[in-house]
Specification:
single chain, mainly alpha, Tetracycline Repressor, domain 2, 8 helices
Length: 179
């Protein structure tokens, strides 16, 4: 793919993610206008809104998987991995604000989403085992709390950088769920 075509695709996907998160009924024509590309450019790549939305979901999943890899959840010391993960996911949430819980039609994408959730749950158990998180919380609770904090972080702390927002979220998470 040519560099300009790749840039246009990235622009259409990120613009689409933002606009579809704000209004799920947004049209491809509106996304094209906002992205500053011709509507035909979008339609050459995507047959319709659902196909564009599927590509946005795939891009978000790619970014989540990259964030998990970058955080080194299985290898890095728990506090370091937690901060890296939170910082990376705040960036993902800001760039790709679509909600993956609406993802129902694509079993492969749903499997990728569930795998990412499982990776974080394994990490959180390691955090309990290492004494960073309190033992005895209900199953899935720490992950649910972390997920909600991550959802809030990009919206409620828009003036902070990803790293600064991660500082606030990690502190809040560890004070609430920490040992």
């Amino acid at each position: 793919m040519r560099a300009d075509a790749a840039r246009n695709l990235e622009l259409v996907l990120t613009t689409g993610a933002r606009m579809l998160a704000e209004d799920p009924s947004t049209t491809i024509a509106a996304i094209a206008v906002e992205a500053g590309v011709d509507r035909r450019t979008v339609y050459r790549r995507f047959a319709g809104r659902e196909e564009l939305l599927a590509a946005v979901y795939q891009a978000r999943l790619d970014a989540i998987e990259a964030a998990i890899d970058a955080a080194r959840l299985r290898e890095a010391p728990v506090p370091v991995a937690l901060h890296r993960y939170v910082e990376e996911i705040i960036g993902v949430n800001r760039r790709w604000p679509v909600d993956l819980s609406r993802l129902t039609a694509d079993p492969a994408a749903r499997k990728r989403r569930n795998h990412a959730i499982d990776e974080v749950e394994v990490f959180l158990q390691r955090a309990v085992d290492d004494g960073c998180l309190r033992a005895g919380m209900p199953a899935g609770w720490a992950g649910a709390v972390l997920g909600q904090l991550l959802n809030l972080g990009g919206r409620v702390l828009p003036d902070l950088t990803d790293a600064q927002a991660a500082d606030v979220l990690v502190d809040t998470f560890l004070r609430g769920c920490g040992s």
